[in-house]
Model the fold of this input.
Amino acid sequence: MILLILAAEAIFILPFVLQRIFRPTFLETFAINNTQIGSCFSVYGLVALVSYLFGGPLADKFKPHLLMSVALILTALGGFYLATYPSLLQLHWLYGFWGFTTIFLFWASMVKATRIWGGTNKQGIAFGFLDGGRGLTAALFGSVGVLVFSLFITNEIELTSLNERRIAFKQVIIYTSIVVCVIAILVFLFLRKLNHSEDRNLGKIKKLTLENFKLVTQFRSVWLLMIIILCAYFGYKMTDIFSLYANQVMGYDEIDSAKVGTYLLYLRPFIGVVIGLLADRTKASLWIIIGFLFMLITSIIFTLGIIDQNSIFLFIFSIGTMAIGVYSARVLYFATLEESKIPIAVTGTAIGFISVAGYTPDIFAGPLLGYFLDADPGGVGFQNVFMIMALFSLVGCIASFLLYKQSKA
Done:
């Protein structure tokens, strides 16, 4: 399980976590704006859209350790290419490639293995450990990345040239790619035991068929989960801009703003375990409702524009509260598969079907956020995107409440 957790986050470090932590540096060194990086995520999301649907049958056919190790190696190779500072067009191709390696080859195996590991009564803690462990992994990558970046900055960050920052950030990308390669080797060598566990539990699982799709669509909870994941994942995409907010609104330099993104990641392990334990004692859907309420309240605070350089405590408190809400919902949305009585035999089909709509923020969130942030630089742009976040939080709260009522019936 530890190696599964390590691999589950390592594969997303290069496409997502680096730009989340180093957002201002990423934009500056690649000479792109928020809208352009958002378009890269759209390409990733479009490839992922197809990959979610067809990755499930592949996970049933091939051994998990083989698929996961190949996915990690290919993703790391993309990281080495990223270190060459490709053009915007080449970045689009790279993010499309990552959409294939991280989703088609990896995603379904990871979620399905976690559900099996959690059994009937421990879904909350299983997905809590998974997401919490992923958060800790991302935080450790981020901390070391910030350290590597600072080691190659010989002067105060404000006094360094763009070329010096490019060289420093290149070292961060290379370090990350090497570590992902190492994890790929460990997965190939030591995750073979997972195969025996899956063979015993999944021996009767059917391949993706039209009948399975028809069965999955008959569950009202599947449609509600689509809405819940879509809204929760949009909230997760919003965490990408916290380091940028720290830089542009709060006045933090590039290193300190990167630390903000890293510190948030350290909340994820704690939230994952605690929320997972609470969900197993009550219902996962109940804590998803609470998570959306936290997101809604915090979004309204940011929308009002009252957080600036003179309200540091409110800034720290608000992003912490937002993180609690986002991570709570993210930890538990697949934990509701058991609560919703979706048969384990069609888990792969359900995951793929739900994910096709649920993860569409990969396509539209980046360009949407980028447009508003670039159209009104500074506080106004952030107020606009948090207003959108408030609407998503409200819809997610309603959908999770309906799922909670259904599970009690």
